[in-house]
Design a protein that fits this description.
- There is one protein chain.
- This protein is an alpha/beta fold.
- It has 5 helices and 8 strands, in the order βαβαββαβαβαββ.
- A hairpin with a 6-residue loop joins β7 and β8.
- The two termini are 13 Å apart.
- The structure holds NADP nicotinamide-adenine-dinucleotide phosphate.
- The site of NADP nicotinamide-adenine-dinucleotide phosphate has 28 residues, from β1, β2, α2 and α4.
Amino acid sequence: MKIIMVAAVSQDGYITKGTDPDVSKWTSTEDKEFFAKIKSKHRFFVMGSKTYDSGAVIAKPGTLKIILTKNPKKYASQQIDGQLEFENLSAQELNKIYGSKYKTCLLLGGGITYTEFLEANLVDEIYLTVEPLEFKSGTPLLANTNTLSDFTDGIEPEITVLNNSNTVLKHYILKK
Ligand SMILES: NC(=O)c1ccc[n+]([C@@H]2O[C@H](COP(=O)([O-])OP(=O)(O)OC[C@H]3O[C@@H](n4cnc5c(N)ncnc54)[C@H](OP(=O)(O)O)[C@@H]3O)[C@@H](O)[C@H]2O)c1
């Protein structure tokens, strides 16, 4: 299974603007279009519970979203089998269980979850939209003092300029 990380980030490295979890308030129209398009091409999605709690996640027939949490019971009433499932699994366990069932997995964040999969060397590709904004505070793209270059060192991303404001989409293919 190919694991593809997708994130939008401010120029100074945050995936939320301060404490506001609503990412759609600051991402560009072009990033929203890119995000909708890439999601439409995949059927299997993974995210952490804090991203799920941020509110923008909906179940969709024909797709499976796994929400990682140490406490799946807390979410039992929200589970929709086969579409929205809450699991307590490590990145390695998830890859083992679902790797033979799905060809691709979109890794939708947030920072704690991206970091876990990158540290486990399970991420194959990264799509990173960099918005021309400075937040000075917020949820960092990566946790545990990691920086993206710890995982992309020496890799030249393919860069697409998405609009006149200089929103940039970087596509990394990681060495494994
Ligand atoms: N700009 C973007 O592209 C983007 C993308 C995604 C999210 N976000 C934002 O990022 C924020 C959340 O990011 P975050 O880094 O704080 O958290 P997160 O990665 O969304 O969620 C982390 C939580 O998920 C659970 N979890 C993760 N891996 C697990 C595992 N292997 N096993 C069991 N549980 C696991 C744990 O919660 P439990 O306490 O439930 O165990 C953990 O505290 C939100 O505000 C969201 O809006 C932004």
